[in-house]
User: Fold GcrA cell cycle regulator from Methylobacterium tardum.
Amino acid sequence: MEAGLGWTDDRVALLRRLWEDGQSASKIAAQLGGVTRNAVIGKVHRLGLAGRARGADEAPAAATPSKIVEIETAIAVVETQAPEPVAILSHRPAPEFPAAAPAKEPVAIPVSQRVTIMDLRESMCRWPLGDPTTPEFRFCGARSITGLPYCTHHAEIAYQPATERKRDRRVASFR
DNA sequence: CCCTGATTCGC
DNA sequence: GCGAATCAGG
Assistant:
């Protein structure tokens, strides 16, 4: 069963919270996953939430999300998509990934640019790092492979061939 | 070039 | 209802 995409009550609720919290459509889309910013904007309008920052003067404020929303969002994201990249793809052909990739570069983990959910962009690796219930929660943030949500390093972990995965190795813990 | 939301309109 | 394409702008 595919993850129930589409505007489920859950997703609409999250969309509402984030939009009202001042988040941009693209960031909300990135957090929801499976939708583009256009989809988010379209939905926002249909819900009648558009033109939030209206007034005598616009409030281009970067709108720093409340700590609560930030954490709740991180949790929601992990619960709906991050926890089982392996399981999700387990029944798919799995993209053309050289299971036995050519000699890897000396680079191991791109921990150098960890980012918070607020700075996560479409082109950034969404591999979760740390405990989503804490403010220290971050995402890998490295350059993701075009068309995929993870960087080369994490994609290897996420899209392991079923044969090499066995039943253990879980998600190799979020490191 | 990066980004923002708004609108249109075929599906 | 949905969202890609497009527009208009920062």
Q: What stands out?
A: Helices of chain A lie at 9-20, 25-32, 37-46, 67-80, 85-89, 152-158, 162-165.
